Amino acid sequence: MPTLYLHKETCLSNIQNMYNKARDHGLSFRPHCKTHQSAEISSWFRDYPVEGITVSSFRMARYFASAGWKDILIAFPFHPGELDELKNLADSCKLSILLDTPAALPFLNQLSHPVDFYLDIDTGYGRTGIRSGNADLIQQILKKSDTNPRLTFKGFYCHAGHSYKASDRKEQDSIHLKALHDLGTLKEQFAEYGPRVLFGDTPNCSIQENFSGIDEITPGNFVFYDLVQHSLGACSPEDIAVALECPVAGKYHHRMQILVHGGGVHFSKEFLVKDGHSIYGRMVDSSAGSWLPGKADYWLNGLSQEHGILDADEDLFHRLNIGDKLLFLPVHSCLTANLAREYRTLDGQRIENIHSS
Amino acid sequence: MPTLYLHKETCLSNIQNMYNKARDHGLSFRPHCKTHQSAEISSWFRDYPVEGITVSSFRMARYFASAGWKDILIAFPFHPGELDELKNLADSCKLSILLDTPAALPFLNQLSHPVDFYLDIDTGYGRTGIRSGNADLIQQILKKSDTNPRLTFKGFYCHAGHSYKASDRKEQDSIHLKALHDLGTLKEQFAEYGPRVLFGDTPNCSIQENFSGIDEITPGNFVFYDLVQHSLGACSPEDIAVALECPVAGKYHHRMQILVHGGGVHFSKEFLVKDGHSIYGRMVDSSAGSWLPGKADYWLNGLSQEHGILDADEDLFHRLNIGDKLLFLPVHSCLTANLAREYRTLDGQRIENIHSS
C-alpha cells in the first residue's frame, strides 16, 4: 500500500532555516504542528530555543501536551463545546486560545485555571477574526474579559491566509504589508496592554523579509512544504520533505497512462490547476537515499478513492513495470500527512503521528 | 469536535432497497464496503442472503476477513507488492482479485492457496481495465493463467464510473447500455468459460432497470449516498444517511458568514459546483431523532484544514449562536467516512470503523 516517506534531512534543514529566519529578525518562533501532527517531529524543534507550539484543535493540543509540550496555542476560535477540554488541559499546561467575539466570554467564567488569549485579527483573508479596523469590538472584548481573573489578554494573532490566493509577488507583498500595517496600528492603539503580535503563514514567513512590529511567527507547512508552496514561490521542489510512494498497478498504452495505488484517501483531493488541468501530485525520481525532481515533469492527473492516474510519455511508459514504486510530491502536505498513519524515513525508520495506533 | 452521525434507519432502508432491487432482477449482491469501512455496518447485510463482499484494498480485506467475511473481492488491479498479503489472506478466506494485464501473472505462480480472478473491463471510463473490444488481450491472459492451477478465472468485472460524469439522464442511459452491450458480447465470446459478469456503481444500480446479462452487482456508496449521488438523481436528500455535526465557532455579519469547526480533515476537499461556486456540504435541520433538509438551502462554501465557512442570510445568522451544533450532508460520503474514526447513531450508539483504535 502507499507509504508516506519523509526526507528527514530536508525537514531538519527546513526547520533550521525557519528558525534562523526568526532569530535573524528578532522574532520568537512558535511553530504550528498541524502539518506534521507528530510528537517525534515536534521534538526536533527542541534543539532550538522553541518553548511553545501552535495547534489547530484540542485533539492536537492533548496529543502534544502528552508529548511534553507545556505552552500550546490553539489557533482556532474558542467555542463552548470545548470548555471541558480546555478546563482539563489548562490544569497541566499553559494554554492560549483565540477569541474573535464577546459571545464566547461568558463560558470562560467557568475556568478554574489561568488561560491566555489572543484576539484573532482579519486583515483581509475573510475566514475568521475581527476586522483589523474594528477597534470598538476589540475594546468591547477587552473590557468584558477584564472582569475574568483567569483570562489574560496576550495580544493579536493573524493568519493572512489570502497569501495563498495571491497571483503574483506584487500581490503577495501588498497582502503582507497591509497585515503589518494593520497589526502595527493595533499594537499602538492598544499599547497600554503591551500586546504581542503573532503572525505568519508559511508563504509570508518564507518569502518576506520585513517583519516590522511582529513579535512571534507561527508557520506550520514549512516543515514539509509542498507543490502549493512551490507554486507560490515559498520553496523549491528540493525543499519538499514528504513524498508518497505508490506502486504501479496498471499500464494503458492507448491512452499513455499508468495506474498507481494512491488515491484520495492517501493524497487528499486537493489539486492545483496546470495548463487547464487538475493535478494531484508530481512524480520525482528515487535516487540513492534521496529523491530528485525528474528530468521531465510527470503529473498525477486523476484521483479516485484508491486509484491515481499518471500521464506518461513513451519513454516513461516503457521504463515502468507493474509493481514498480513511484514517488510523488503532494499538492498539500498538511492534508496528505493527515491521511497517513505514520511516516517512513528513507533509511526505513518509522515515525509516528497522531493517527498511529 | 466534529462528529459523523449515521441515520441508521435510513442506512438500513438503503440496504433493503438495494437488496430488493438485486433480488427483483435476479442478481447476486456483493456490496462494496469501501464507503462505510465498518465491520458492524457490514454485518447488517447478513440478514439478507449476502455471502460475499467487495473491498478496494488489502487493508480492508484483512479488516473484513477478521470480522468473519469468507468471500472477498479486492476490486483493485492486483500488483506484486501485494503478493505476500494475498498469500496470507488466501489461507483463511476465499479471495478474488482483479487482473487487467498478463504482466501480473508470473507473480501469481507463487500462490500456495486457490485464488479466483475477474478480468477488469473498461467500457469507457478510462481508469482501469482491458478495453471491452480487446478480446485478444483477454484471450492472452486466459491462456497464460490457465497454466496456474491455483488461479481460476471467474468472469468479468466492470466499474462504469463515467456514470458520475454524465451530464443528463440520456447520457447516463447511454453509458449504461454500452456497458451492458459490451459485457454481454464478452460473455458470449468467452461462453466456454461460463463467465459471471459483475457490474454496478451506485448511480447505475440506483437509476437503471435493465441489467440484462449481469449476474452480480457490487455498488458501495448507496449505504449512505451523498450530495454527488443526489446531483446525479441516484437518491433524494432524505436517503442520505450520514451527516457531519459541526459546532458554530464564529459569526461575521459584514460578510453574512458563519464559521464552523469542520474542515478538509473532516469532510475531505471533494466539492460540487453550484451556481459557479464550489460547495462542500449542505446544512440540514436537526429534528427529534432525525434530520430534515431545511426550508432554505444553506451551503458550506469554503473549507480549510479545520475551518468551514457557511453562507447565511439574516434569518439564519440571527438564529445561530456560538456553540450551536449544525448538521451537514457531505459531498462525497466515502471520503468523509474515511476521515472519521467512528460513527454515532442518533440515539448515541458508537459504531466502529476500520480507523477506530
Give the topology.
The structure is a homodimer of 357-residue chains.
Chain A: E1 3-6, H1 8-24, E2 28-29, H2 39-43, E3 53-55, H3 58-66, E4 71-77, H4 83-90, E5 94-99, E6 115-122, E7 130-131, H5 135-145, E8 151-158, H6 169-189, E9 196-199, H7 202-207, E10 216-217, H8 227-231, E11 242-252, E12 257-261, H9 264-267, E13 272-274, E14 277-279, E15 281-287, E16 290-293, E17 299-303, E18 307-311, H10 314-319, E19 325-330, H11 333-338, E20 342-345, E21 350-352
Greatest interface: A-B, 54 and 54 residues
Tell me the domain tally of chain A: 2
Helix content of chain A: 25-40%
Q: Strand-residue fraction of chain A?
A: 25-35%
